[in-house]
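Dear support,

Our group has been running a series of protein-ligand predictions, and this particular one with zinc ion is the one our PI (initials K.S.) wants archived with full inputs and outputs. We had some confusion internally about which version of the output was final, so please treat the block below as the authoritative record. The input we submitted was:
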Amino acid sequence: MDEPSPHETVIEVAIPAPLDRTFHYRVPPQHVTRARVGCRALVPFGRRTVTGYILAITDRSDHPLKDALEILDPAPLLSPEELEFLRWTAQYYLHPLGEVLKAALPRGINIVGRMKTVLDEDGVPVEREVLRGGRGILTERFCLPRPDAVEPARLSEKCRTLLAAIRDAGELSAGALRREFGSCSPQIRLLDERGLIEILEREVYRDPFRQETVQRDTPLPLNPDQAAALARIGDALEAGGFAPFLLHGVTGSGKTEVYLQAIARVVAAGRTALVLVPEISLTPQLVVRFRRRFTCGIAVLHSGLSDGERYDEWRRIRRNEVAIVIGARSAIFAPLHRIGIVVVDEEHDGSYKQAEGLRYNARDLALVRGRQAEAVVVLGSATPLVTTRHAADEGKLGYLPLPRRARGLPLPETVLIDTQGKRDTFLPPLKDALAENLEKGGQSLVFLNRRGFATWLVCNDCGHVLRCPNCAVTLTYHRSRNQHGCHYCGYAIPAPSVCPGCDGTEIGLLGRGTERVEDELKELYPEARVARMDRDTTAGRGGHARVLRGIEDGSIDILVGTQMIAKGHDFPGVTLVGVISADASLNLPDFRSAERTFQLLTQVSGRAGRGDQPGRVLIQTADPGHYAVACAAEHDYERFCAQELEFRRELGYPPFSHLALVILSGITAAAVEAAAADAVRALRDIRKGSRRRVEILGPAVAPLGLVRGRHRWQVLLKAPVRADLRGIITAFRDRFRPVAPVRMAIDIDPVDML
Ligand code: ADP
Ligand code: ZN
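Confirmed final output from the archive:
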């Protein structure tokens, strides 16, 4: 620690650790010019060296400070606007700022370069930057001709050929030369030494599109509903400033066309667009539609990218080389400048909520980012969250309805089939409809939201059930692997031939999953080409695309699948949708289970009849009178929404309250239970000292009371006024620590209460 001097440069740094404060460091003179807000700095922290993020630069401190070791970035990674957005995020979700900043930056960025002598492709030692962390910036050597150079008389045949090729092309990468002429490093070096060519090391991007080309298309003439929606968005764009909308359009109503044309206006005005979708690998069609329409740069961010690809996309965005970013949840943090519009497609989708760590909701943050950027925000869905619809009714969002299908097609006719007292997977009406559709040459989707073959194994003698030792769930039998596996932690055992409880041989497999449904379909319709789409059949890169292509090119007659097949695919050949059971999601212990069921049934029904032929939907259910099921069958969002809001009002759930969930977890059940009781006591204490109206519910065992060997208890907070909830939960976070090793997590606006 040096003596303080009057001209010191001091940085305030956020550290990615569970700490609610920031730290100050002195910047040594040789680094001062590089230290800027938004850059990363390598700093000593306790006994470790860590990467922190510079939040502010001052010139004084009251305390003696440690020195920062290095400034890691030549230019800021985060702009002041991004920092402001991330600060807001950290405060709202009660998460340490350093961890929020780390989560917002691409993982591939934590790579530090070192110069090192390595062997090049031909085994010749050269100086290269080697990147720690595996994948980093890709560079390639490019050979350019020197225009004024005179070709010497004595030059080998190979050198002459290479030089001619380089002059011909204007420039060629060393890789391209090698591919065409074989190993040629010595010759390239010779050409360079003789002053005939110039060698430049240049960054290249990994291309997630793999150079696939697409056919261009042009905007469709809009129908009156679409035109009205676009006009209101256009007015808002022209007026400038923050303007949020709900685009409520039935399945196939042409919402995507409205997004495309609104974005075209934004791009033409020199601004950029951020498009959030639930999961891109499930909707490759959407990305293709964007690439057909736009010539400007498009970046695609999704979970299938390698760290290196993600980093490359991030850098293209950062450098203003793209005008449109399409991405799943985490794309909300894309370093896009001059945002003019944020689109959240399928805004009701639960996957916008991150379930662990920083438990943010990208749909909600889209509104926050849109407000900060003074942009238009369009939330689109056929089944908006009832909370979103309520906000639109209250005038907080502009309401843009698309009540009809774009191409004038009717919504599919839907029939409910009562399964009470029946055991078959396929009841006669569904069986007949599938046979009939097959005969007509139509394609069918069969939906069941449960993968695997059987849901559980039970012994008929002793009643023993195979359970996961780490999680409070039964094991699912997967016949393709002949294993019983846990869908939460991955635990798996080979299928036993006798009961593990009593050694009896009378073991049975109960319940069914997509694997068993696929089997039965093959047996019922031996001539049909049956395929399955769930997490088991689509593992690996391109897995989804393969199945989707089979539907598109007509090589699949019947596709069985989980909710993956319900997402926004546009399959013109599908004329029949069968739902094996609507009830699995209805009986979950969560106040959103009716809403989820309605959304799922509506989405999967919406896959039928999108082409020239009308579609039919058959839904098997044990509870045909339930409003979620009945309203989905009648395509009656309004009635569903009214009933659901009535239910929420009675029980005081959102939108009539705000929620926070405190989750305690640990290995020892008793310790977790005690910590949960302590938490409730602390919360009551804090509430007593304030005048805030907050309901404290619990402690209770979480519906999934054991996951990956950790016991879980929870406390739910409910408040009609958000400020009251914030007051209590913030004070609680600052004051309460569970006794180690019990861990605590706070989930603001929880989506999944399991
Ligand atoms: P959504 O996103 O609402 O489910 P899409 O945008 O996928 O609907 O549109 C459904 C189908 O209707 C697509 O095949 C699309 O090309 C077509 N479509 C959309 N708008 C129009 C229009 N104005 N005229 C003709 N066809 C349209
Ligand atoms: Zn498990």
